[in-house]
TrEMBL record:
<dbReference type="InterPro" id="IPR017452">
    <property type="entry name" value="GPCR_Rhodpsn_7TM"/>
</dbReference>
<dbReference type="InterPro" id="IPR049579">
    <property type="entry name" value="GPR26/78-like"/>
</dbReference>
<feature type="transmembrane region" description="Helical">
    <location>
        <begin position="124"/>
        <end position="149"/>
    </location>
</feature>
<dbReference type="InterPro" id="IPR051880">
    <property type="entry name" value="GPC_Orphan_Receptors"/>
</dbReference>
<comment type="function">
    <text>Orphan receptor. Displays a significant level of constitutive activity. Its effect is mediated by G(s)-alpha protein that stimulate adenylate cyclase, resulting in an elevation of intracellular cAMP.</text>
</comment>
<keyword id="KW-1003">Cell membrane</keyword>
<keyword id="KW-0297">G-protein coupled receptor</keyword>
<keyword id="KW-0807">Transducer</keyword>
<feature type="transmembrane region" description="Helical">
    <location>
        <begin position="169"/>
        <end position="195"/>
    </location>
</feature>
<keyword id="KW-0472">Membrane</keyword>
<feature type="transmembrane region" description="Helical">
    <location>
        <begin position="6"/>
        <end position="32"/>
    </location>
</feature>
<keyword id="KW-0675">Receptor</keyword>
<dbReference type="GO" id="GO:0007189">
    <property type="term" value="P:adenylate cyclase-activating G protein-coupled receptor signaling pathway"/>
</dbReference>
<feature type="transmembrane region" description="Helical">
    <location>
        <begin position="44"/>
        <end position="68"/>
    </location>
</feature>
<dbReference type="GO" id="GO:0004930">
    <property type="term" value="F:G protein-coupled receptor activity"/>
</dbReference>
<keyword id="KW-1133">Transmembrane helix</keyword>
<dbReference type="Pfam" id="PF00001">
    <property type="entry name" value="7tm_1"/>
</dbReference>
Amino acid sequence: MDTAEVILSVLVVVIIIVSLLSNILVLICFLYNPEIRKQVPGLFNLNLTFCNLLLTVSNMPLTLVGLISKAQPGGDGFCQIVGFLETFLSTNSMLSMAALSIDRWIAVVFPLRYHSKMRHKDAAFVLGYTWAHSMSFSTVATCLSWVGYHRLYASCTLSNPRASSRTQFVIFTVFFHSFTFLLSFIVLCVTYLKVLKVARFHCKRIDVITMQTLVLLVDIHPSVRQRCLEEQKRRRQRATRKISTFIGTFMLCFAPYVITRIVELFPAVPINPHWGIVSKCLAYSKAACDPFVYSLLRHQYKKTCTDIINRLLKRSSLNASGRGQQNQVNSIPTE
């Protein structure tokens, strides 16, 4: 292994550890807090967490093995199963992000009708579509033997070693990425930009009210006035930063891999083997980013994590004090 391969192997290990711990923490918060379970977005987050966890334990370690050994991990049948899972889980996670963006769009643009437009059965219907959509592409690829070990990515993924079906594979690959990555990206852009438009409109209304109040309060201290103006600026930047994070992480993690898969369809264009692994690592890193982007940085999840930690520390302190009292009782001499 050269230096670049060692660095990439370490990167895969870091992604596996972060993704595993963060997604498990999201799952614990979901099971611990009944309020999170009652909310419709919690179902989409649960589905996304489920996909990320399965991808972390089933595909990432085998990519690490393929990168180190430079050979296919397991037999052809085993690799086809892993490739089926990789295609299914990556598609399902992209569509889950699109579903979350639609949910937030309805919540912000139609706040009074949100509970009638997005109920649990509506969320179940959306999740059913994401599963059917993901299952159809992965099943077709597996049945046509377009899933196998790909040396460029050191992974069991979409691959076509047969020259006889190259044209059909090219059509399928373009169609697949158009209705997974491109579709999800368009949905994210349309919904989140509408959310940003509404958020900026409300910020302007709040700014007008704040400025009118500051004008009326002529005796207000300059420091208080300055803090109000700074809060206005932070409020405007907060919405833009959140939307940029949702769309930016999606593009940064998935776009290099998808573009590489499309460029790969042209045999005349050479692709550096190290870049293939880097693009795959970027796609895997989305599973490690999602828990923070969609869950753990939200106030409700932060509070749940704090409650869990406090409960564990309280239980530990109670156990320690109980053992101390028991030792004191045992140390009292008996006549």
